[in-house]
Structure formats: C-alpha cells, structure tokens
Amino acid sequence: MIETKIRKPEVLAPAGDFEKLRYAVAYGADAVYMAGKAYGMRTASCNFGQDELKQAIDHCHAHGVQCFITVNVMPRNHEIDQLPAYLELLNDLGADAVIVADLGVIPLVKQYAPKVKLHISTQASIVNYSAANMYHQLGADRIVLARELPLHEIAELRARTDKSLEIEAFVHGSMCISYSGRCLLSNFMMGSNRDANHGSCAQPCRWSYALMEEKRHGEYYPVYEDDRGTYIFNSRDMCLIDHIPELVEAGIDSFKIEGRAKTSYYAAVITNAYRRAVDLYAEQGSAWKLPDAIRNEIYKVSHREYYTGFYFGEQPSEYHEDSKYIRDWDVCAMIHGGGKQGELTRLEQKNKFSVGEVVEVFAPGQDPVEFTITEMFDKDMQPIESAPHPLMEVNLRLPCDAPPMSILRKKK
After folding, report:
1. How far apart are CA 398 and CA 403, in angstroms?
2. 305 and 164 fall within a common domain
3. In whole angstroms, how far apart are CA 222 and each of 40, 119, 208, 212, 231?
4. Would you say residue 256 lies in a domain?
5. Domain end (from 319, 347, 368)
6. Which of 13, 112, 128, 309 could form a disulfide with 24 if both were Cys (CB 3.0 to 4.6 A apart)?
7. How far is the C-alpha of 171 from the C-alpha of 147, rounded, in Å?
8. Do 141 and 260 reside in the same domain of the chain?
9. Is it the case that residue 328 has pLDDT exceeding 70?
10. Which domain holds residue 252?
11. Of the candidates 217, 166, 229, 198, the residue with the CA atom closest to the CA atom of residue 44
12. How far apart are CA 181 and CA 202, in angstroms?
C-alpha cells in the first residue's frame, strides 16, 4: 500500500518591525507578512522604511523565509497616483508577494511589480468559490479567506477552485468585530485621522459601553454582561492549534498568525508553537496528538480567552469577552547571543528577576527548561541579588544550551 504524503501547510508569522521579524524567523516561520511606512493596515506597529524593507527581505531570504508586503489599505485617488513607484520598489527589492484588498490595485501590481506574487487580503471578504475564481482569473496567486467562514465551506471552496490558487486563513490571534475587518467605528468616534481602513484603528470595539437617556445628559446607565462590565463589541482570541488535521484536510495552504502590533515575545512563542505542531503533524499523520508542552505555550503570552472562531459553526454565546488580557507570564531577559549549559551567559534584562526565583529557558524548537536561579552577576561580574533595571546586562549559568535569541521568562 502506497502511503499518501502529508501536505505540510505554511506557517505565516507577523512582523511589525525588524526585531519582531528576526524572532519570527528564528522561531520557525516559513514566511512573514509586514508593511512599509505606507499602504499597510497596521500603523500602530513601527513598520519598515525603504532601507529597512531591503534589510528585512534580505534577512528573510538568507534564512529561506518568504516575505509578503501588505498593500491592503483602501487607497484614495492621491494614494493610487503614488502607488506605482512603491510597487516598483517592492519589485526591485525582491518581495515575494504583496497583499492587496482593493480591486483597483490589482492591475497596478501586475504592471509595476511583475515579479511579485499577488495575494488577496481577508478584507476582500472572500467567502465563496466564485469570488475566489474571479480573483484567480485576475491574476491572484493566493487568497486570504474571510474569517467568518466555517471549515466545511472552506473545503467546498477548495474543491471548486483551481489547485494552483493557494488558500490562506487566519488560525490564531485577535478577532475583529467587523466583517473581515471592515469597520467605521473608529472613524465615527475618533475622527478621520483614525481611519480603520487606512491602518489607524483606535479599537473602540475593545471599550466598555453604557446607555445615556436623551434628556438626562451625563447620567450613564451601565448594561452589564457580567460583573466586570459591558464589552458588547469585543471578542475572544482565535486559537486553532488543536485542529491542525482538520485545517489541512479542508485544503488550507497557509496558517496565518495575527499580531503585527504585538510583541517580539508573542511572535516567537506563537510562531514556535505552530511550527512545532505542524512539523509533528507532518511526521505523525493520523496518529498526531498535540503534546501538552506545545499547547501550554499559547497560554504563556498575553491573550484573551481562546475559542475557535467560526471554523466549527458560529458561536455567538462564546464570541464576546471583556477586554482584559490574561498575562500570567513575564519575560525576564533576552539571550541574544545564546549560551552553553553550565557556563556564564550574558542576558539583557526586560523585567525584574531575582536570585531564588524559578524561571524557564525558552528556545526555538525545544520544550522549555525550568530552573531556580542560585546566583547572578552584573556586567562587571560582581554578584547581585536581582536585576531591577531595564536593559541592564546580567550574567548567569543556564541549565541547558540556549541558541541565539533564546528567552528567559517566569510565571507571575
């Protein structure tokens, strides 16, 4: 009997700035998505200037990682006029793909960036095979599905589209209350300078709300969902790490992780978890079972309560959640240069930690290693009891080898 080779999906990680990109690459991303200083939907992240774009693309390619650039705002006339020069730049820099949402941008990509693949953003709200096929006919190499699609409809869409058209879908991260991320709440409540469809969303869906009667100005009437307040627009975070086989069987080619505005630590931990989960599935096939050590990682970043989004049917009662993040872990320090077991290793402090505390070494592709700090030294190799100052140099002995860009962390 001939065994069918298991199709291995791409792990696509967010890169809001160069540091986040470096951690996403180091922790196993097959590809990253990022933005220049214009035309991207996340102005809250630092993004990349022209020189940084070249450095980022070169860094990715040197590590065998693809680099996708977002050009997914809904551009106005003056922005369209300026877009050809930017597309030519991306073409010359060697970007692997651009992600677009606006129909009018597609022919410009084809004309001014002919060497760059065309991906259609989730903001295009693709929820059926006819739309997918239409974008493919227009030259799309990949579509990013709307987050509102259940898994059985994704499988049908895959069955009724050309196999050369790649399918990408979000599998982890924050959810938007608006359909496929198209929202005007921010514009209405914060003014035109906070245009959600130009990357400047103020996230008013995360705020708490109350009622005010028309003739009783200043008198607010809370409407409680629970004793923590009313967050009627807010949502839980998506997490599909326990459902790798179902996602692959439905025909999804790329697993997209949300979070360009989140931390480097988030990029490292979540990319690492999905990298290891996908690799294990490729090895084990139908015998795949997610180890607790990998599943536990997703709870060691700042997150809201998790749920599976719309993949297994709409679940209105489970969608909404208050805006409080769960933050049970702190990053103590970054081990930029790596270290050897038992040897004094230099770390850069991020949050205070002390002798006597139980900490973990977190490294790419490995289970974390827990140990108790028994001694630590400052940059002059003088003994110290704690590391209270941001970015201070700390030296301590590690219980294991730690490759470059490993992380020291502790439970709060």
Report:
1. 11
2. yes
3. 36, 44, 9, 9, 11
4. yes
5. 319
6. 13
7. 9
8. yes
9. yes
10. 10-175+235-319
11. 198
12. 13
268-285: average pLDDT: 97
Question: Are the C-beta atoms of residues 183 and 159 closer than 8 Å to each other?
Answer: no
Q: Which residues pair with 371 in a beta bridge?
A: 359
For the chain, give the number of residues.
412
CB atoms under 10 Å from CB of 338, counted, come to 15
Residues 6+ apart with CB under 8 A from 245: 281, 286, 288
Q: Is residue 5 part of a domain?
A: no
Q: How many domains does the chain have?
A: 3
**pLDDT > 70 fraction of the chain, expressed in percent and rounded:** 83
Identity of the amino acid at 98? V
Domain closes at, from 287, 319, 351: 319
Q: What is the pLDDT of residue 323?
A: 57
- Does residue 229 lie within any of the structural domains? no
Question: Could you give the CA distance from residue 373 to residue 352 in angstroms, rounded to a whole number?
Answer: 13
CATH number at residue 93: 3.20.20.70
Nearest to 333 by CA among 261, 245, 393, 411: 393
pLDDT of residue 233: 65
- Percentage of the chain lying above the pLDDT 90 cut: 73
pTM over 0.70: yes
33 has a pLDDT exceeding 50: yes
Q: How confident is the model at residue 228 (pLDDT cuts 50, 70, 90)?
A: low
Angle at 201 between CA 198 and CA 203, to 5 degrees: 160
Q: Which two tokens stand for residue 271?
A: 């990319």
In a domain, 227, yes or no: no
Please give the full DSSP string across 332-393, using - where no structure is assigned: EEEETT-B-BTSEEEEEESS-EETT-EEEEE-TTS--EEEE----B-TT--B-SEE-STT-E
The domain spanning residue 381 has which CATH number?
2.40.30.10
Locate the DSSP E strands across 245-299. Answer: 254-257
